[in-house]
Amino acid sequence: LAKLDQIYHSSMELSEPELVFNEIKKGESTNREFKQTFALDVKLKERGGHIVNECVKTVAGFMNKSGGTLFIGVADNSEITGIEVEVGKTKLHKSVDKYMNTIKDILKKRIGSASLSNCDFNPVKIRGKTILKIECSQSDHEVFVENDFFVRMGPSTNKLEGRELATFIKDRFN
Q: What is the pTM of this model?
């Protein structure tokens, strides 16, 4: 018990970037997802709607399950790549503030402003690179992406339909 207490107190001394770094090193899970970018297809070097869709689905999936955190600027292998490929004077977004506002606007449009209140946006600088941490709390109502319903299952986000959707909503929201 004393050893656990010592570990706890030493963890309290870590800075926010160190705590976030340690969280990232744990890898993806039911409540942790990594995306290298929010909108930029890094292979094609152009905006990709499919990448935006993946991020929006993940946020909705977290809220429909038990909450979670989306880290933007982190590769699937936990490598911190940063959001600098999307943010900068000659990039898609001129500043981190404009980047966050664009993401908020997209989420508001796709999942609704009531659901957006379940999200906290926090840029964190880790080892010289900035990432965006989007913490999503569990929603008290169903969160749809347009007409589709997603839920976080393990390290992936799945679309529910038909009987599976009806059963999940009944169990989770009633």
A: 0.89
